[in-house]
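The passage that follows is intended for readers who have already worked through the single-chain material. We present the inputs for a multi-component assembly, then the predicted structure in tokenized form, and finally a short commentary. You are encouraged to pause after the input and sketch how you expect the pieces to fit together before reading on.
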Amino acid sequence: MPDARVRIAVRRQRDPESPSSLEAFEYVGPTHVSVLHVLEWINDHPGSRTSTADAPFEAIAYECSCEQGLCGACAMVVNDTPTLACQAFVDEVARDGLVEVGPLTKFPLVRDLVVDRSALEEAMIESHAWLEGDAKVTPRLAVHQYQAGLCLACGCCLEACPNYAPGDLFCGAAGAVGLMGTVTKEPDDAHREDMRRAYQERFFSVCSKNGACERACPAGLPTMTLVSQANRASVWGFWQRIGRRR
Amino acid sequence: MTEIVVIGCGLAGLSAAIAGAERGAHVTLVSPMVPERSQSVMAMGGINAALDLKGEGDSCEQHFADTMRAGCFIADPGATRRLAEAAPDVIDWLSRQGVCFTRDEQGRPAQRPFGGQRKTRTCYSGARTGKQLVSALATQARRYEASGAVTRLMGLRLLSLVLDDDGACVGAVLVDPMTNEAIALPADSVILAFGAPNGVWGKTTGSQVNDGCAAGIALRDGLSFGNLEMVQFHPTTLETPSKRMLVTEAARGLGGRLYALRDGRPWYFMEEWYPELGALMPRDVVSRSIYRVVHEMGLKHDGRDEVLLDITHLRADVIERDLDEVLDTCLTYRGIDPRVEPIPVYPGVHFSMGGILVDEGNRADVDRVMAAGECACQFHGANRLGGNSTLAAVHGGRLCAESAVQQGPGASGPRRDAALDEALAGARADIAAWSACGPTGEPSRDVRARLVQTMHACMGIYRDAAGLERGLGTLRDLFEGCRSTGCGESYYDFLSTREELRLAVAMVGSALERKESRGAHQRTDFPDTDDERYRATMVTSWRDGRARTEVRACQTHA
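Having made your guess, compare it with the prediction:
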């Protein structure tokens, strides 16, 4: 495959207080490579910058760990789509020879393409999403619990979700998927009720079942199926029991 | 209350944090990134335990024996025996923590065969064992975070261990590489669980986050390292534009066959050379066999240094279910469909058997420092079995916490505070000095490129004195160069370049001193195994500005 030239525009921002701007680069090389690979290439080839700038090139900041779609570190927005940069291939995402790369916008910015995703974990703590007792094994639910365990905590589902805005109580698909796993494994009734309440308040009452999360999930999780499992475990069973008590 | 600082939040760090909190300690869990990003999530294959579910007569004794044999008898026998004996309990503990193990018809964790083992002993969780283990343990760590027993500090890197006048560890200094802000954390014990030193190799099958900087720092700050020359080349890795990606051993465990084309026909060299285990021989043997086929016999695939891994005879639904990650990787990065065509593979750097030397309680030789997981040297000897790394990380992490709690509170009061204040002030001065001079000298990118090139040239599958000495000279020069100038685009870049070089110097020094061939360490100038002199641990420490390696008898307390 001959080398191609692709224009890459990267949103740069030194820190949360500084203004952001697009910086342009020209990538030269094979095109069935990931956007992550191109970012690394740019940092190794500062001369690829085509924007006129007074300041010397500073390496683009981004998070990266496994480079193969297993860790969720490199989630960012590529040509308007939240995705993992290691799984977005230049030849598949380029539009008119251009790839625009920016940070996830629903998390506080740290620098360039790095954002602070601690809201994801905080929501899980506030939802009491853990086990107090020894995990129950339910063969019927095993496949869904396994899928819940694949969540990368990358944030793409929240980025894509029309119901989520930064600071919301709503925990999005990442929260619902995590709670589905813990609610269905927890043997302790009282703690399970805590998680059910959290699920209803932080997810069920807000989710419009738009499905954007499922389309955005880089791990390919069937979020809508997992949500319906979570609903069964956290909402319908709950109301049935309330009804019985009455 | 005992205060424990855990560096690293992969399987070993999470296990240590949970076990410490369970035993009433307060744990501060420190890491550059959250658990979901740790290299542990990349472990695919499984986790070993002699449960004997298939009625093959498996036992902990056999698990121990297989591990020792694969490690060519230089693992710590006492610690390894305990590892094998603890394994069934580890599986039970993980199961209770909520790990979704794949289960058999009776609801017990299912097991499958893995390389180098005579029994079916590897538990797994679909095609993503490491990910499922991390997910469950991260969820349970949260429980203790909510109760206040665990505090998570993410986005930080180790800058130094702080020792008091008696040489005991009293805490650690950490730095935020983004802001250059340093903090000092007091601790009664520090547990190191920072994983592999991948940075010295440029890229490996593992995570970029595990750069080796923390290992260099631990060496500098007085810890002894064992068997640093023992680096596992995983036999089956796939070339992609960004790095070599792992093709899990499970592909061979499920029946995958290795071949090269000889006179236009597939030749299954492993099956011919090793009729009993075939492609499931221990990894070092498979890697050397591939090297022999490609380089000595010249049987290259399309002129490239590769042989072929064939799983096309497996049922498509088995590949899609149990090897879905192999399928994804091949399709996504190379456009190869392993259901209908063979996968081109070649050995790649995968795992460090060597690391911080620890005793049976995972204690390092600096008082109040423990280590577990890939950064520690203990169980794997000269070659690690598939399915033993995840086991060692969980078991080792729990042992670290036990040891830390057993040791209890250490020195506190003004002496400790003074040591911490001094270390923090020193770190801040170092950062300020770097900031004042900024990037000077040879760019770190070029220094790292030479480090990586040197390591691959002299520390590959086959080594000899001439190459190792040449490599050591280059690395020493690079290290000295980095000490005097402020290379690096950031302070952390400067620090990590220097510390990775320090570690590389120690690795090559250790390889030079082991004048024999054993497991992952193959010397063309010393092709035989020398049990009399080297059925032993190569112990490397940093003294007077140099790495010094000595031969020490393997720990034999059992």
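Commentary: The mean pLDDT of chain B is 95. The CA atoms of residues 158 and 402 of chain B lie 23 Å apart. How closely did your sketch match?
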